[in-house]
Amino acid sequence: GPVAEPANPVRGTCFAPWPGPRLGPSLPPTGHQETPVKELKIKAGPFDLVGRLELEKAPQTCAAFIKALPFVSEVIHVRWSGEGVWMPLGDLDFGVGYENHTSYPAPGQMILYPGGISETEILLAYGGVHFASKVGQLAGNHFLTIIEGKVLYLFIIFSNPSVPNSLPFLS
After folding, report:
1. N or C: which end of the chain has fewer CB within 10 A?
2. Could you tell me where the beta strands, DSSP code E, fall in 25-156?
3. Range list of β-strands (E), 39-120
4. Contact (CB, 8 A) for 50 and 40
């Protein structure tokens, strides 16, 4: 059926390794071991955030997300979960199960719901969240924590009528 356009999207939210580039699997060996990605730079509209990957607590989820970089998606305000934003990903399969999962991410925590009874999605809490969908409570893998930048800026986007509903990725 028809798909409704989500309200208040932030278009072009982008995740990239931080700081700087990393060696990829297609590059020839140089004698130096690849430095593992530990942090990601996140661009959401006009806001820049840096997130620390939870490599010890969610290694499979972090590895799957790193493989998907650079990751670009649309961010919209959650419908049933409280104070957070989410990236609906449909039937995208990251190939992971549950690890370090929670239904109550703290502000600044990002979780990946790998799909199942609802669509695959990523959620970033900026306030109180009880992660749920129209089918009920869900749990997502906490794989990233914001360490630089203010997640409350996301609240400004979605609660202030003077802020445009759609913000560009790059100005």
Report:
1. N
2. 39-44, 47-53, 71-77, 82-88, 101-102, 109-113, 121-129, 132-133, 136-137, 140-148
3. 39-44, 47-53, 71-77, 82-88, 101-102, 109-113
4. yes
Q: Quick one: tokens of 73?
A: 């998606």
Q: Which of 90, 84, 79 shows the shortest CA–CA distance to 115?
A: 90
> Residue 60: CB partners within 8 Å, gap ≥ 6?
96, 97, 99
Q: Which residues of 116-150 are buried (b: 16+ CB within 10 A; e: fewer)?
A: eeeebbbbbbbeebebbbeeeebbbbbbbbbeebe
> For residues 84 and 87, what is the distance between their CA atoms, to the nearest angstrom?
10
Q: How many CB atoms lie within 10 A of CB 71?
A: 17
In the chain, which stretches have pLDDT less than 70?
Answer: 1-35, 151-171
**Residues 57-101: tens digit of each pLDDT:** 999 999 999 998 888 888 888 888 988 888 999 999 999 999 999
Q: Which two tokens stand for residue 132?
A: 């749920």
CA torsion, ordered 143, 79, 107, 65, to nearest 10 deg? 20
